């Protein structure tokens, strides 16, 4: 890792640790337990990982589809490519629904 990247990672970790320590008293007064905090983290990670993976999948699908269309324009691959993108996006929407369900159980 480069020196700048390492410094950024360390700065981000320090800000995260300091902000969590600063908000600990406020969270304790609001009734936030460790289980609720872990649940909220799970909700955030659920949608973040799903969105990241969906974006990677859509990027690769579009790249491959456009490459195929460029090689053979008369193949008519636009509709199957758009259908595949809709399926990928539906998985991200399912993850959003699961995140809302987890949030309802935690919150």
Secondary structure blueprint with pairings:
Elements: H1 3-22, H2 24-29, H3 34-71, H4 78-106
Your description of this structure?
- The chain is mainly α and 107 residues long.
- It is elongated.
- The chain folds into 2 domains: 1-30; 33-106, F1F0 ATP synthase subunit C (F1FO ATP Synthase).
- It is built from 4 helices and no strands.
- Helix 3 (34-71) runs antiparallel to helix 4 (78-106).
Whole-angstrom Rg: 21 Å
Unreliable stretches covering 5 or more consecutive residues? none
Number of helices: 4
Strand content: under 5%
Give me the strand/helix succession: HHHH
CATH architecture title of the largest domain:
Up-down Bundle
Main beta sheet strand tally, sense and closure: none
- The number of distinct structural domains comes to 2
Global shape: elongated
User: If you average the pLDDT, what whole number results?
Assistant: 80
Number of strands: 0
C-alpha termini separation? 39 Å
CATH topology of the largest domain: F1FO ATP Synthase
Q: Helical percent range?
A: over 70%
Q: Given the helix and strand composition, which structural class is it?
A: mainly alpha
Features:
mainly alpha; 4 helices; F1FO ATP Synthase; elongated; 107 residues
Quick synopsis:
The protein has 4 helices and no strands.
